[in-house]
Design brief:
Length: 727
């Protein structure tokens, strides 16, 4: 099989050559373009209109370990009483977390996006869903791949969970790898920091993003059927999703599915080839619900094919996932509830060059947790628990820049809230992990020839403390101190090869130690009255921050026993990036203010202002760290009247003139958008129509957090229409 041409891929990154290889014309608001050509796996017996309800079951899930089996048996033995016919609302176990840009109190939930607010977003990736929140950006590798970046921290420093357990995909390994969660299936997104984030991760200076899909019902559900259609011009979006829920006796069920396709992206410099996508997914879940708890099981599948802006290169993604969840209320006097969660995933994606699979990434594993919510004792309440996960990660083919690895993580955690007085409280938490990464022996010619098998073990320990003081009935202030440790991941330890996603020859360091950091934050918040909002300043200081550092060029492999390319010069030349530990500083500020202009039963109007700023540097050299978003300021005017809603917003993104050695400056730009919504009745059923306009002035803009910002601008002017029908 012919290997990928690194010189051709690199030429596609050059903005001056992009017009030749990637632009199909200057069609803006629509226009023809080539769809993805990766062959689909849909069953021909299923009509196209119902393809989004198909579940592909052509691959077995990974075998279960004894620990995994024990969790299933423990959950299966739970007896859930169902003697009471009346519906009972059962809430999941959650310690209320620190909202980014929101008030921190003992009863404030994490920042949440759900309902109409989530549906109104014109977002195709999880990064886009959260990108408008102060302090949050997207890694943006084209319209199909983008992870959240919070306060300059991304990858494994920002945990992405699915219903409380790991997403178990490959998105943290490369910026061109999509998160295996489509926004069409998301019912709620939670963003947590501080002590509550320690329930999920030891690296919490960035935070935790928990995505909820409601596929396992936790209460009896009324019968409902919802259709949601969406069409857009900038990317030729066409999507249809359906959701059915209901109950029969003690059993509640959930069924959802979607189909989505996009054409090549329209930008102010023209339509960009190799950015189209085609996705289908479905899931179902069933629970038995009673007055003492619930037990439920769900299965979901996702198939996606998408371009990554490289000429002729596409990614075909496939994930199958089982989830188990159960909860028992008041099993003992000292326990308010006990809950189990287990996720088992089989993930695979292949990178196709001209229709031929060049590299395949697989991630097979499971993640399980038990949460014990404690009965309130005096002024103290909290949650303690254990979490355990295993996954095998492998890369084969032309982009095999890593050996096969086996990864294990076990954790003990706790998060607590304690009232000190009527107007002050203390929130604190801990997490101690045992992490092990084992790499197989590797038949490989790289910087090192045929590396031997190796393993590395770590014990990260993280602590968080927050003091909350109510200044009066409207104002509160919070002072937070966080100490975090993170074990280096398999890529940081064992990488040795050319990586297409970063356009670099990556070299890991098998001697890396734990990443260590301390964070300090002060927040002032006002939550009541006609004016509300928050302002926060923070400083995160890392004594050992694992970063990629430029180190000349890759090795010349032409003279090896198995000859390879010359990455040091010529057409295959690649910059060498070493994973190193450096001291680093991150500091910044975030603000959001809301003015309530009118608040009546049928008429509400408001004005909001928001902004953020971030500076990140290598403390040894004072040089900027790579891909740091510049500051931004924005304003929005919104209203609701007699079933109509509207919003007009404008955001100015400052220029980024502090950049790493191998980066270029990023010009500032202003984005203006508008949206309109209307609630009405259709055939006696509730309906909602939403119209969203993005980048109204068709501004050419570049995302400073993106690896490919010099080649690919953000989308141009776009119009998107959404229709939701509920029966």
């Amino acid at each position: 099989m012919e290997s990928l041409s690194w010189s051709r891929m690199r030429r596609a990154r050059n903005a001056s050559e992009w017009m030749e290889s990637g632009v199909e014309g200057d069609s803006r608001m629509g226009g023809g373009s080539s769809p993805c050509n990766y062959p689909r796996t849909a069953n021909p017996m299923i009509p196209p209109c119902c393809s989004f309800l198909q579940l592909y079951c052509n691959k077995e899930t990974p075998p279960m370990s004894p620990f995994h089996t024990a969790f299933l048996l423990a959950a299966a033995t739970l007896t859930v009483s169902a003697q009471e016919p009346a519906p009972q609302k059962l809430k999941p176990v959650v310690i209320k977390g620190s909202a980014i840009g929101g008030e921190i109190t003992a009863v404030t939930p994490p920042l949440r996006l759900s309902g109409a607010g989530l549906e109104a977003l014109s977002a195709t990736t999880l990064g886009d869903v959260l990108a408008d929140i102060p302090g949050v950006a997207s890694s943006y590798f084209g319209p199909n791949s983008g992870r959240p970046v919070i306060r300059g921290l991304e990858g494994d420093r920002l945990k992405i969970a699915q219903n409380g357990t790991s997403s178990l995909d490959a998105s943290s390994a490369s910026p061109d790898h999509a998160v295996s969660l489509d926004p069409l299936t998301i019912r709620e997104v939670q963003v947590l920091r501080g002590p509550a984030a320690l329930l999920y991760s030891s690296s919490i200076l960035g935070g935790v993003v928990n995505v909820i899909d409601n596929r396992i019902p936790v209460e009896r559900l009324p019968r409902a059927f919802t259709l949601f259609g969406r069409a857009g011009s900038a990317d030729g979006l066409r999507s249809l999703s359906a959701l059915a829920e209901g109950s029969a006796g003690d059993f509640a069920f959930h069924l959802d599915g979607f189909t989505k396709s996009t054409t090549d992206l329209s930008t102010p410099i023209g339509r960009i080839a190799d950015t189209a996508s085609d996705s289908q997914g479905a899931g179902f879940g069933v629970s038995r619900v009673g007055p003492s708890g619930y037990v439920g099981l769900s299965y979901s599948g996702l198939d996606s094919t998408y371009g990554v802006t490289e000429p002729g290169v596409e990614i075909g993604l496939r994930q199958r996932r089982w989830d188990l969840a159960c909860s028992v209320n008041a099993p003992a006097a000292a326990l308010k509830s006990v809950s189990y969660k287990l996720g088992v995933s089989d993930y695979e994606h292949s990178e196709f060059d001209g229709g031929v699979a060049g590299s395949t990434f697989t991630n097979q594993g499971w993640d399980a947790r038990v949460d014990f919510e404690l009965t309130k004792i005096g002024a103290l309440e909290g949650v303690v628990g254990v979490q355990s996960g295993r996954f095998d990660f492998a890369v084969t083919g032309d982009e095999a820049f890593l050996p096969n690895t086996r990864n294990a993580n076990d954790a003990l955690f706790g998060s607590f809230v304690q009232s000190l007085s009527t107007d002050s409280r203390l929130r604190y938490g801990f997490r101690v992990e045992s992490a092990k990464v084992s790499a197989d022996a590797w038949t490989h010619e790289g910087l090192v020839s045929n590396p031997a098998a190796a393993s590395a073990s770590f014990t990260p320990a993280s602590l968080a403390l927050a003091w909350v003081k109510d200044l009066n009935a409207q104002w509160s202030t919070t002072l937070s101190l966080t100490r975090t440790e993170r074990a280096p991941n398999f890529q940081e330890l064992y990488a040795d090869g050319p990586h297409m996603g970063t356009d670099a020859y990556e070299v890991g360091d098998r001697t890396l130690g734990k990443e260590k950091g301390v964070g300090l934050e002060l927040e002032l918040a006002k939550t009541r009255g006609t004016i509300s909002g928050s302002f926060s300043v923070y400083y995160n200081r890392f004594s050992s921050f694992i970063a990629q550092q430029a180190n000349g060029f890759g090795p010349d492999l032409t003279g090896r026993a198995t000859p390879g390319p010359n990455y040091s010069s010529g057409v295959d030349q690649l910059a060498r990036h070493d994973f190193v530990s450096v001291p680093a500083d991150f500091y910044g500020a975030e603000a959001k203010v809301n003015f309530q202009l009118q608040d009546e039963a049928t008429s509400k109007h408001g004005l909001e202002f928001f902004g953020d700023s971030l500076r990140a540097s290598n403390r040894d050299t004072s040089e900027a760290l790579p891909r740091i978003s510049p500051g931004r300021v924005g304003a929005a005017l919104h209203g609701l009247q007699s079933g109509w809603s509207w919003r007009l917003d404008a955001t100015y993104h400052l220029a980024q003139d502090r950049f790493a050695t191998d980066e270029t400056p990023t010009a500032g730009y202003t984005m203006v958008g508008a949206s309109f919504g209307h609630d009405f009745q259709f055939a006696g059923a509730p309906a909602r129509f939403t119209l969203r306009l993005t980048n109204l002035f068709d501004v050419e803009a570049r995302n400073a957090s993106s690896f490919i910002k010099d080649a690919l601008p953000l989308p141009g002017r776009g119009l998107e229409a959404c229709l939701k029908l509920s029966f």
